[in-house]
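Record type: monomer structure entry
Structure origin: computed from sequence
Chain ID: A
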Amino acid sequence: MKNISKFLYVAERDIDLLLLEELNVSHAFSGWLFNRAFGDSGTAPNCEGAWHSVSHSQLGESDLIVVYHDASAILVENKIDAPAQPEQAFRYKLRGEAGCKEGHWQRFITCIIAPDRYLMWNAEAKNYDVRLSYEEVRDWFDIQASKRHQYRSYAFDAAIEQNRRGYSPVANDDVTNFWLQYWDLAVSKFPSLEMHRPGMKPANSDWPSFSPQVLGKKLNIVHKMAQGFVDLQVSGASGRLEEIRSLLEDADLEVVAAGKSAAVRVVVTQIDRFGSFEAQRKNILCSLEAAQRLLDVGTELRSYI
């Protein structure tokens, strides 16, 4: 067994949760990250806490947010090998500025953590304030010498190697089964959404999408389960938000930028793809009802887009 990797594959969520735990329980690690991010060599302030997958209703999601007792914050994007979303670093900066205005922190840094190879070749990575390599994090764990830290170093090594050789998504049986139950409910209750039967799904797959023929090629509907959004996405329309708002009859619908697209958004209850489908059935039904509502909106918008 010694020659077999402990990981079949490493998901970004695995690294997220590993970092989340270490930041919340280890002053040594949270202090090291503070000094690395802010370029400070003095005594780092205590960490007030770290949070995972923090969503802003209009500006998207941060993988991790770390807040310190001196009212500083680090907004962290974690990547192993997934492609960057358009203007992702810019949205991190907007979320940081929003946090200042809302009184959550007084200053902030945006930081991407990824394998060195990713940081070197990904153009979007250069738009973050700080770029921190997996190799640096691994080396920090390495010198701590405890068995727990050695395991963390091993996990980062596995992710680095995964990036080096190129990662093909590995199907997750539980997530695939969740999607199949979701699809069965969608086609039986909301056939006009025309959801295609899903194939095998990896662990990080949680955006069911709908592209009914009536919407044409520029419009589609996406249920962002973990974020709690159902979006009618209008391709290439991020500069037309006010125009799209003016066309809507429902004043309670949000219109936000989603990369280069505009999104007409309905906020719904977050769905956990790793949890019980039946326990979340009512919330999933509400989300599909929101998708149906957006289908009607999209049908009306199509002639103006």
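Annotation 1: Strands lie at 47-56, 60-68, 72-78, 107-114, 130-133, 209-210, 219-224, 229-234, 254-258, 261-267.
Annotation 2: Residues 245 and 255 are 6 Å apart (CA to CA).
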